[in-house]
Amino acid sequence: MMHSETGFLINTLSFLVWGGLVMWMCAGFTMIEAGSVRTRNA
Hints:
By secondary structure, the chain is mainly alpha-helical. 83% of the residues lie in helices and 0% in strands. It contains one helix and no strands. The longest helix has 35 residues, at 2-36. The radius of gyration is 18 Å and the shape is rod-shaped.
C-alpha cells in the first residue's frame, strides 16, 4: 500500500516539474524568435 502511494506522489510531482520546465522552454523559445526578427521583416 505504501509503495503505490509513494510512486503516485513521485509521478505527480515529476509531471508538474517537467510540465513547468516545458512551459518555460516554450516561453524562452518565443522570446528568442521575437528578438531575432527585425522590424522591417515583420
